[in-house]
Specification:
This protein is an all-beta fold. It is built from no helices and 42 strands. The strands form ten sheets. The chain has a five-stranded antiparallel sheet with strand order 29-30-31-4-37, with no helix packed on it. A five-stranded antiparallel sheet has the order 5-6-7-8-36, with no helix packed on it. A hairpin with a 5-residue loop joins strand 29 and strand 30.
Length: 631
């Protein structure tokens, strides 16, 4: 209970009162002192924004009353000697934050010279969903999902680009009269974007796999569908651009329970099929995630045994699609499990998976696996909110084996919990972002300015025709977001569940003859209604004030060469940086001869690179007239 509030000569306010923690009757309360800034912020334990307080304007009366004659009172006022006892109270610091003042400058309303942190929603008069996002070089994001408010009928695929402030630069609804959706997106080497999903508008009403290629301005360059006309259709869930400029993507052939089969396709840079194969695990199965690793593709998914789902990973020859090895993985034995996404990290691969009690997904929880390049399990971590199932799907690997993951604490009206887990399984930080209604995070990505963005849905109480909007949360590397930072929480714990892993028979992948015609898709430009839940412009760190590497313990700069070693030809040089910077690069061959010198090369972060993982790269192409290796 606060009894008194006063101002501070440094700005802000202090409140004093009592804090009463359950205890003995003789020690039930302590003095409580709270120091906050002028916006109510108090560093790591800032208060959450609330709408519980309202202001009313009550009716009142006022009138003069008779004064009468005041009476004199004779009082004694002697000096008294009081007892004084110095004492040292037991002091308990509930939280502390030292704010370093910044020189007063004009308010940067454009945030051109700062880092934008915010929470925003985007939508229309019906349903919108954000499924995946990828960062752009200008510190913004491209988002994909589906929309019911805009487009050509049914649900349409949604493509939207926002700048560093979260303001919409362009947005497109793509599709036809049927139901269409986009589930994934990646940046491409020509500064455009490739998105993956399913379309039911152009031939097979059960659905075809779908690729949509757009340029940096959101203009559709081409669109193709992939299917063989099966009565159950096809759906695709993940895509990657390969080092040769082509694409690989995965999903399900005959997309229906009991008959579906894992489906992987490789194409050239125009989407023309090079090979297309189905991989039949025991029972029905689907492929949900893939990534490139040198001359191989790493694919993860799940298959249905008679009683349970189990996850699987397989390594494919990129040139032919043949299986090099295939393993099954199971956590907690008596529960169902599926593997959903995979990325390359320093020690091999990291896989995002879900465990649950039944086919309906009861008591769902997340398990993150670190797996070696030969398929051997290094460790597994289960993310738990005790006493409840989680409803989030967002995940981002860190190159050292740690990760950032999003949860929700229930299924009805969950808030967002984002947690950074270190490589050793300890929690670096965990924060809870409280919002009205239901929030579910589907995707997490990094930023060229540091920190993370989380994408999903926000579902406020409303009519059935307007139940969800796209939800975008932008936070710094410790989960802070200015005036609407998440509150530090201990709700999330990490467990180390039992697991099994073994090889499974690979069999012979079956070729699938798919039709992949170019389709002319409907494209509608629209302007979504944008709601800014909160916005904060944080000064950009400069020079020595830039933070060093945090929980993932990566150095601020690394260089990688792909392929390595390389003979004469084109190669990729990846500069892994935490902030936009200038790099000096010397390329020297094994004979000690300097081949190239770059004294002022821009380095910036991106979220995907061939070595995979957390930070990013300035990706350049160079012609090398000799033999070179970088260790």
């Amino acid at each position: 209970m606060i009894r008194s509030i006063t101002t501070s000569p440094e700005g802000g306010y202090a409140g004093v009162g009592i804090n009463n923690i359950a205890g003995t009757a003789t020690d039930s309360s302590n003095i409580y002192l709270l120091r906050i800034d002028s916006m109510g912020i108090s560093g790591s334990c800032s208060g959450t924004n609330t709408s519980e307080v309202t202001v009313e304007s009550p009716s009142f009366t006022s009138s003069a009353i008779g004064t009468g004659s005041p009476g004199n009172v004779s009082i004694n006022n002697p000096v008294i000697t009081v007892s004084t006892s110095p004492f040292v109270p037991v002091t308990s610091t509930l939280c502390y934050y030292c704010y370093v003042p910044i020189p007063i400058t004009p308010i940067d309303t454009s945030c051109l010279n700062g880092i934008s942190l915010y929470q925003k929603v985007y939508g229309g008069n019906k349903d919108e969903t954000g499924e995946w996002l990828v960062p752009t070089a200008d510190s913004g994001y491209v988002i994909v999902g589906h929309t019911n408010s805009f487009g050509n009928g049914g649900s349409d695929g949604l493509l939207m680009r926002v700048n560093k402030k979260g303001s919409v630069l362009w947005s497109r609804a793509v599709g036809g009269a049927g139901d269409d959706a986009l589930y994934g997106v990646k940046a491409t080497s020509d500064n455009g974007f490739i998105s993956i999903g399913q379309t039911k508008s152009y031939g097979n009403i059960a659905g075809d796999g779908w690729l949509v290629k757009v340029d940096a301005g959101g203009v559709v360059q081409w669109s193709k569908k992939y299917g063989d006309g099966t009565v159950f259709g096809e759906a695709m869930f993940d895509v990657v651009q390969l080092s040769d400029g082509g694409y690989a993507f995965c999903g399900a052939h005959q997309f229906a329970g009991g008959v579906s089969q894992s489906f992987v396709i490789r194409t050239d840079n125009s989407g023309n099929v090079i090979w297309s194969k189905q991989y039949d695990q025991p029972g029905s199965d689907e492929a949900w995630g893939l990534t490139e690793d040198g001359n191989s593709l790493i694919v993860v998914g799940f298959y249905r045994a008679p009683d349970l789902y189990d996850g699987y990973m397989m390594k494919l020859d990129k040139a032919s699609g043949s299986v090099q090895w295939r393993n099954t993985y199971d956590a907690e034995f008596s529960r169902h499990m599926l593997m959903a996404k995979v990325r390359v990290i320093n020690t091999g691969y990291q896989v995002f998976s879900l465990v649950m009690d039944d086919f309906a997904g009861s008591n769902q929880q997340q398990c993150i696996w670190n797996i070696g390049t030969n398929g051997t399990v290094q460790n597994i971590r289960k993310i738990v909110i005790p006493g409840t199932q989680t409803s989030g799907y967002g995940w981002m690997p860190l190159t050292d084996g740690g990760f950032v993951v999003a949860n929700g604490e229930n299924l009805t009206n969950p808030d967002v919990l984002i947690t950074q887990v270190n490589a050793n399984g300890s929690i670096g930080w965990s924060r809870k972002y409280v919002r009205n209604g239901r929030q579910v995070i589907r995707s997490i990505a990094g930023s060229s300015e540091g920190g993370y963005a989380a994408l999903g849905i926000n579902n406020n109480v409303g009519t059935a025709t307007d139940s969800s909007n796209i939800y975008l949360l932008r936070i710094d590397s410790l989960g802070g977001s200015g005036s609407c930072s998440g509150i530090i929480t201990s709700d999330v714990t990490v467990e180390f569940p039992a697991f099994t892993s073994s090889a499974i028979s690979s069999g012979t992948p079956a070729n699938v003859s798919v039709n992949n015609p170019v389709i002319t898709i409907g494209t509608s430009t629209f302007v979504p209604v944008t709601g800014t839940l909160c916005f904060y412009c944080q000064p950009k760190p400069l020079g020595s004030s830039r933070p060093s590497a945090s929980g993932d313990a990566d150095p601020q700069h690394q260089m990688r060469l792909y392929p390595n070693p390389v003979v004469t030809g084109t190669f990729f040089l990846d500069i892994d940086a935490r902030f936009e910077d200038i790099a000096s690069i010397n390329i020297i061959d094994l004979n000690g001869t300097v081949q190239y010198v770059f004294t002022s090369e821009e380095a910036f972060e991106r979220s995907e690179y061939y070595s995979g993982g957390f930070a990013s790269q300035a990706e350049k192409l160079y012609q090398l007239p000799g033999f070179c290796t970088i260790r």
